Amino acid sequence: MKGIVSKVVMGAAALGLMLAPPAWAENIKVGAILAVTGPMSFLGGPEARTLEMLVAETNARGGIDGKPVELILKDSTGNPEKAVSFAKQLIEEDKVVAIIGPSSSGETMQIKKIAEDGKTPLLSCAAAEVIVDPVASYVFKTPQKDSDAVRSIYQEMKKLGLTNMAVLVDNTGFGKAGQEQLVKIAPEFNIKVVENEVYDKAANDLSAVVAKIKANKEVQAVVNWSVVPAQSIVAKNIRQMGWDVPIFQSHGFGNIKFVEAAGAAADGIIFPASRLLIASDLPDGHPQKALLVKYKKDYEDKYKENVSAFGGYAYDAFIIFEAAVKKAGSLDRDKVRAAIEQLKGLPSATGIFTFSEKDHNGLTIDAFQMMTVKGGKFVAYPAK
Amino acid sequence: MSTELFVQYLFAGITYGSIYAIVAIGFNIIYNTTGIINFAQGEFVMLGGMIAITLLSFMPLPAAIALAVIITMIIGALIEIIFIRWLKNPSVLRMIIITIGLSILTREAAVHIWGENIRALPYFVGNEITTIGIMGARISPQVLWVVGVCGVMVAVLHLFFRATSVGREMRACAANRLATILCGINPRNMVTFSFVLSAGMGALAGCVMSPITYSQYDMGTGLAIKGFTVAILGGLGNSGGAVAAGLLLGVIEAFSVSVVPLAFQDAIAIAILLLILFVKPHGIFGSGEAARLKAF
Predict the structure, then answer these.
(1) How buried is residue A200: exposed, middle or buried, by Cβ count under 10 Å (0-12/13-18/19+)?
(2) The pLDDT of residue B296 is above 50
(3) CB contacts, 8 Å: B266 with chain A
(4) Residue B26: which domain range?
(5) Which residues contact B9 (CB under 8 A, 6 or more apart)?
C-alpha cells in the first residue's frame, strides 16, 4: 500500500515538473497595482482589463524578444496602505522589472519613494503633476499633465468670454492636485476664482453646495474637477436647479459611465480628454488613429463595455514598458529605466510620448482634445 | 440669505434627512425586538436599488420596485433565519459582530453580481434635467418622491405598530420579552418579522433615492454610519425621534455649507453626535429610564 502511495506521489511530482514552464526560459515579470475594486474601480477596472488583454496579445505573438510576459496584478482597492505593501512585495519578493500603476494620484505619491529606494521603474496611471514634478528618476506617469488640462479649459473659457468661475473638486488626490493647478494658472488667463469648494468622493447629493454657488451672481462658469461618480451628481444638481451655467470638467470625466450616470444633464459639458474616446472620428492618417481604433475594437469586443481614457493610461504604460525593454535589450531595472528616458515619438493611446531626463510624462498639451457630450456620446468640441 | 436660497438649502436638507431617517428607523425596528444594532441595514438599501435596476430590464418600473422590495424582504428573513434565529441567548457583542460580518458578506456578493460600477434607476418623473419651482427654489421632482415615500412609510409604520395585532405583538416583544412569551407570543417570529420589515423599508428607500444618489455595491456603509448617528440622536428605538433627528441632521448639514466649506459637512454631523452623547447620552428624544429597562 505504501508503495502505491509513493509511486502516485512520484508520478504526480514528475507530471508537475513536465507541466511547469522550464525554469531557464526567463519570464518578463511586470507588476501592476491597480484599484480594480472599491471607489476608484472606475479607473482600475478598465486599466486591469486592458493590461490583461495586452499581455495575452503580446504572449500570443511570442512575448517581448521571445520572452513571455508575466503580469502580477494586485488589487489595491484604492487604498494607499495596500498599495504600499503591494509595492514592497512586488519589488522585494516578486522581483518585477517594473510596476504599472497605481490608478490614483494619492496611492502613487505614497509609493513614489518605495520605487525610488527599490530602484524599480514605476509607470503610474495617475494624473497629478506632482508625481513627475519634481522628477524622481524611477517614476513616470502616462496621463496628460493637469496643468495642460487646466490650460485647455481656460483657453475655451477665454474664447467664450467667461472670466468668473466656481471651482468644485472632489477630495481625492486628483481633485486636490487639480484645485491647486486651477487656482495657480487662473491669473495667466485673467480668470477669477469666485467660489472654491471640495466635495466628498462618496457624496450622494450635492444640491446644498450647488445652491450656494448658484446664489453667487458673479459665477459665469463651473469647473467641476473630479475623477469619481460624484462629478455626475454635480452636473445633475446644477441642471435640476434650472441653472444653465456652462460646465467644464476635467479629463477625469473621460468614461462614458459618468455620462450615463449624469444622463441628460451631461449634454453640453465641455472637457479636455484623450483622443481614444472619439477614435473613429479622427482624420485618417493621424498617427494615433490606427492603434486607437484597434484598441477600442479589441477591448469592446472582448469585455462588452465601452473603452475609457483610464484604460488608455494602462495601455500607454504597457506600450512604454514594452518599447523600453526592447530598447534596453535587457531586463535590468536600471537599463529599462534609462531606456524609457530615451523613448522618442512613441505613439500610444493617450498621445505621442517623448521622454527625457527632465520630462517623465512625455506628453504635451497636444495630447488633449476638447470634447463635449451630445445625445449621450462623446464628440469633438465644438460639436458639429 | 434670500428666501430662494433658504428654501433651496431646506429641500437639500430634507432630502438627506429623510434618507437618514429611514435607515435609522430600520435600525430601530430591529433594535426594539432584539436589542442589537443591525449593521447590515445599509446593505438592505443597496440591495433594494440594485435588484430593482436588474429587474427593470424585464418589467415596468413600479413592478420592478415592488418585486425588489419583496425579494429584499425575503433576503432579510433568510439572513435572520440562517444566521441569528438558532442562537441561544447570544451576547450583544456576538450579534453585532455577526451583523458586521453579514454586511461585508452582502457587499462582496453584490460586487460579484453587479460589479463595481454605479447604476441608477431612471427618474420616476421626467429625467435628469427636469426641474420644478417651489417658492423660488428649483428642485428635481424626484426629491418630492423621496420625501413623500419616506413620509408615507413612517405614517404606515406608525399605524402598523398601533393598530394591527402583529404590530402590537412586536411592541410587546420590545417592551418585555419574557412577558411576551408568557402571553403566548413567539418572540423569535417577531425578530424574523422585524428583519423583514426593516429590509423592506430599506429596499424601498433604496429604490426611490437611486435616481438621485445612484446605487453602488458599497453605498451601504456610509448610509449605515449616518443612519446610526441619527438613530442615536433620536434615541435608540424611538422612531418618531429618528424622523426628527434625521431631518435635523440633514438640514444642519445643508445649511452648514453656507458658513463653512463643504469639506466640513461630515465633521459637523460627527461633532453634533459627540456633543449629544456628552450632554444627553440617550439622544435628544430618548429617555434614560427607557434605555435602562432594556437588557442592553
Answers:
(1) middle
(2) no
(3) 200
(4) 3-293
(5) A208, A211, B251, B254, B255, B257, B258
- Distance from the Cα of A243 to chain B's closest Cα (Å) equals 9
The beta strands (E) that lie in B245-293 are given as none
pLDDT for residue B291: 57
Question: By mean pLDDT, which of A57-66, B41-50, B184-193 is the weakest?
Answer: B184-193
Note whether residue A42 is domain-resident.
Answer: yes
Domain around A257: 146-273
A32 backbone φψ class: left, alpha, beta (φ>0; ψ -120 to 50)? beta
User: Both A152 and A263 in a single domain?
Assistant: yes
Candidates B226, B249, B230, B248; CA nearest to B239 is B230
* pTM exceeds cut of 0.95: no
In a domain, A18, yes or no: no
B222 and A202 in contact by Cβ < 8 A? yes
Rounded to a whole number, what is the distance in Å from the CA of A145 to chain B's nearest CA? 26
Categorize the per-residue pLDDT at A23 as very low, low, confident or very high, splitting at 50, 70 and 90. very low
Residue B10: closest CA among chain A residues belongs to which residue? Answer: A208
Q: Would you say the ipTM is above 0.90?
A: no
Asked whether residue A16 is assigned to any structural domain, the reply reads no
> Which residues does B99 contact at the CB level (< 8 Å), separation at least 6?
B36, B37, B38, B39, B40
φ/ψ region of B115 (left if φ > 0, alpha if ψ in -120 to 50, else beta) reads left
Contact B128 A233 (CB under 8 A): no
Q: How many residues does chain B have?
A: 296
**pLDDT-based confidence at A320, cuts 50/70/90?**
very high
Residues of A with CB under 8 A from a CB of B: 36-39, 41-42, 45, 171, 197-200, 202, 204-209, 211-212, 214-215, 229, 232-233, 236, 239-243, 257, 261-266
pLDDT at A121 over 50: yes
